[in-house]
Amino acid sequence: MAGEDAKSNGSGDVEGMNTHYVASLPMEVKHRIKALRKLQVDYFKLNGEFYKEAAELENKYFAKYNEVFGKRAEIVTGKHEPDESECQYKETNEDIAADLAKVTINDKEVSGIPSFWLTCMKNAIDGTNDFVTEEDEPILTHLTDVVIEDTVDTFKIHFHFSPNDFFSNSQLTKEFRLKLSPTEDDPFNFDGPEIIAMKGMKIDWKSDDKDVTQKKVTKRQKNKKTGTTRTVVKTVQTDSFFNFFNNPEWVEESDDMSEALADAFHTDTNLGSFFRERLVPRAVLYFTGEMSGFDEDYDEELDEAMDDADEDAGSDADPDFKPSKKDLRKAQQQPECKQQ
């Protein structure tokens, strides 16, 4: 128990607890504490320099990654037919090996890999699967490529579409801005790189009935005084993956955000990081369903973590509080990637 481990300093204040202990210390000790806090700031600044250098190195390799992903896009879209030498590798998955055992290159009835990205997204457990609705699917069959454009302190996700009946954009882009080092006014609040702003873009829907992000709802209203009724048609937002592109102007995270905007911000930044860190680099593994199994195991680990968190809370914790899977996922993923 915290109360058993804490010690009194003789003045009634308790060390290691949220008290006025520091205020009660002698001036010479306070002076040394100030020196320690200055050293803590120096550490955070060095930490920020590390992340900047790491980001520069990662940015260098993104150019090489995109060369590989460009070849992938040519195969997916049918622009390139791989020869036998391009299919030679050591297969470690016996089930996949069996499924691909009877491959021939004579069948030309199908071009490329149809619905490649839609399948990847639907197979992403707790990644993009939760965001793709049935109404989104006919549009996402036209998604031909997802490209990450990376700089040191920003990244963009470009979604390329073939001509379709829904919108006239050939490309939809979501952009994110990063904080890689501590700020001068709040250095102690630095906990590694984080996304601090995002920007979507306007989707040019070909007609209102093609816009899957909204729908018209008809309601009847009754006048309390006259008793007459009238029909009112309202446009309401619907669940859709394409809400990801809302906010065509920059939105910066702040304490003044409304709860709804803050939720949308964190949802979109988590989704953007998922595309950048996992789905785009490992797309074919999501397409085959192999990464889905990995995610399911990961979800089991999160469930266990949720149970452990509930058990560790103790009698002093709020009995109604339990960390969500999204909170735990964000906390566990944060050290692994440059953005989060």
Outline the structure in words.
The chain has a 5-stranded antiparallel sheet with strand order 3-4-5-6-9. A two-stranded antiparallel ribbon has the order 1-2. Strands 7-8 form a two-stranded antiparallel ribbon. It has 340 residues and is of the alpha+beta class. It has one domain (20-76, 112-205, 240-336): 2-Layer Sandwich (Arylsulfatase, C-terminal domain). The chain is flat, with a radius of gyration of 26 Å. It contains 9 helices and 9 strands. The model is unreliable at 1-6, 8-14 and 312-340 (pLDDT under 50).
Q: Unreliable segments (pLDDT under 50, ≥5 consecutive)?
A: 1-6, 8-14, 312-340
Rg, nearest Å: 26 Å
Strand order of the largest sheet: 3-4-5-6-9
How many helices? The count is: 9
H-E string: HEEHHHHEEEEEEEHHHH
Q: Let me know the largest β-sheet.
A: 5 strands, antiparallel
What is the top-level CATH class? Answer: Alpha Beta
The overall average pLDDT, rounded, is: 80
- Give the CATH architecture: 2-Layer Sandwich
